[in-house]
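Deliverable D4.2, example record:
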Amino acid sequence: EVGQQVALITTIWDDHRNPQNEVLTIAAIDGRKVQFEERIQYYHHAGEEYQAEIALLSRRILIQGDEASEDSHVGGHILSSGDIGRFSGVQAYRMGQTNVLARYPFHF
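Output generated by the structure prediction step:
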């Protein structure tokens, strides 16, 4: 859908030293063509042997920490301690706590 965000994944060989992942917002869709609001910054190879991967980032449910969480790296934490925990279509934004064991955005 228009307005959703996608990640365009790097296609370079040594990506851990020079990642070229990009987050883009869909501006228009026409059949099999998708236009983005942003310009693509890197070359992403698309050939018979290899193509870039696209990941849909937008979700129907957004759980987010406050604006201070972005700078402090101390965001919300969702803990599922029962026998079953299911989350589907959920985006965690400004969540989790940096360098604190077991304080991930979602913890089972």
